[in-house]
Amino acid sequence: MDRAGVGKVCLAMPGVTLEHPFGDDHDAYKVGGKMFAIVGGEGGLSFKVSDIAYEVLIETGRAAPAPYLARAKWVHLADPADWPDEELADHLKSAHALIAAKLTKKARAELGLLLPM
């Protein structure tokens, strides 16, 4: 998946915004003002994963610890095009869900992330 593909997947999720806090060559995808994925200037992709996914992806060599964000269980893919599109899209959706779950109930409701009862 290339930069445009990552953008298409991320921006299709509810409440997502695209910002450039690290310069125009970095795309930061946020939900509720909190990042869940970043595409770097050279095309590398970093995103949030669960604790278990972090261990599996790092131990199997499928991903590297993300610079500056590994302590928060983020992984880095030097070339996201090496991954099957569907699998990467699933990881991005999980990253979105992990970050969205940490938002307040009010923030999730405002973003349309809560299911009506």
Automatic annotation (TrEMBL):
Sorted UniProt keywords: DNA-binding
User: GO MF terms on file?
Assistant: DNA binding
> What name does this protein carry?
MmcQ/YjbR family DNA-binding protein
The protein's organism comes out as Brevundimonas naejangsanensis
* InterPro entries on file: YjbR (IPR007351), YjbR-like_sf (IPR038056), YjbR/MT2646/Rv2570-like (IPR058532)
Q: Which residues form a coiled coil?
A: none
Q: Which domain of life is it from?
A: Bacteria
- Recite the lineage of the species: Bacteria, Pseudomonadati, Pseudomonadota, Alphaproteobacteria, Caulobacterales
Q: Name one Pfam family in it.
A: YjbR
Q: Which PANTHER family match?
A: CYTOPLASMIC PROTEIN, CYTOPLASMIC PROTEIN-RELATED
